[in-house]
Amino acid sequence: MKKYKGVVLFDYDYTTVDQDDGILTASAKTIESLQKLKENGYLTMLCSGRSKRFLEEDEDKFQGIITCNGAYTEVDGEVIRHIYIPEDLVQKVLAEYDTKDSALHLETQDVTYYIDHGQEFYKTFRMFLGLPQHWFAPWEQQKNEQITKIVMNCANDSIIQRFREEFSGQLQCVKPFEDKIVLDIMSNGITKGEAINYLLDYYSIDRKDSYAFGDSDNDVEMLKAVGTGVVMGKHSKAAGEVASMFTGTVKEEGITTGLETLGLI
């Protein structure tokens, strides 16, 4: 098995790219910095709440990816692990929360399914992230799909609170956006931090040699799991509270600045 000096993990939205500033793919400077990291013996990992399909614009710029908030890990084309939501729980969520007040997406690594009456959320979500339509398909009661994440868009926070209470100990929940009533749902215990712990053990990398760049609430476990958690210039309150250091925004080339400050490149 290949040995690495350490590992550096990067969130995607508002860390590697920033839709608000029109930066829809990793900048040339970021790509150059990732290559320097690789040459210096570090494993570079994209670590996102998105599924693999939603990262295809940039996944080839990294040596590996962790997707769906930790449910799927791949390094150099090899799938290290893939943990999906049990079929009975997928069906239970559909039965109870496929309502006019809670639109659902069901994500595999290749396609995202949307429920018919939730099409408005699907369209808004797709346009918000700049995703092509052919990555999505209508849900037609498919069976035995490997659903790694369910996304629930709610009319109010009380629905999220009720869901958390009902599925406590059965499903892992995290709000990916501080200012939106959206919930990411994975198998119980799955977080970015848990996936990083697994990766560190798998490659025998010391925690002090692990670094992560993030910005949002769903990055908190990632930032806490590594030796040094770097938070971008635009970030949520929760991410800022667990930062080891801060860097600039995506537009300000915060990744490169942070790596240089840390002496990794």
Q: What features would you describe in this structure?
A:
An eight-stranded mixed beta sheet has the order 5-4-3-2-1-12-13-14, sandwiched between helices. Strands 8-7-6-9-11-10 form a six-stranded mixed beta sheet, with helices on both faces. A hairpin with a 4-residue loop joins strand 6 and strand 7 (112-114). The chain is globular, with a radius of gyration of 18 Å. The protein is built from eight helices and 14 strands. The chain is of the alpha/beta class and 265 residues long. The model has no long low-confidence stretch (mean pLDDT 93). Helices cover 28% and strands 24% of the residues. Pfam families: Hydrolase_3.
Q: Main traits of this protein?
A:
HAD_sf, magnesium ion binding, HAD-like_sf, hydrolase, 265 residues, HAD family hydrolase
Short description:
This protein is of the alpha/beta class. The protein has helices spanning 28-39, 87-97, 119-129, 157-166, 192-202, 220-225, 237-241, 254-262; strands spanning 6-10, 42-47, 64-67, 72-75, 78-82, 102-107, 112-114, 136-138, 149-154, 171-174, 182-187, 210-214, 228-231, 245-246.
Low-confidence stretches: none
Work out the radius of gyration: 18 Å
Strand content: 15-25%
What is the quaternary state of this protein?
single chain
Strand order of the largest sheet: 5-4-3-2-1-12-13-14
Structural class: alpha/beta
Number of DSSP E strands: 14
SSE pattern: EHEEEEHEEHEEHEEHEHEHEH
From the N-terminal CA to the C-terminal CA, the straight-line distance is 24 Å
Q: How helical, in percent, are the residues?
A: 25-40%
Q: What is the arithmetic mean of pLDDT?
A: 93
> Any idea what the shape is?
globular
Count of separate DSSP helical elements: 8
Characterize the biggest β-sheet. 8 strands, mixed
GO molecular function: magnesium ion binding; phosphatase activity
InterPro entries: Cof, HAD-like_sf, HAD-SF_hydro_IIB, HAD_sf
Keywords: Hydrolase
Protein name: HAD family hydrolase
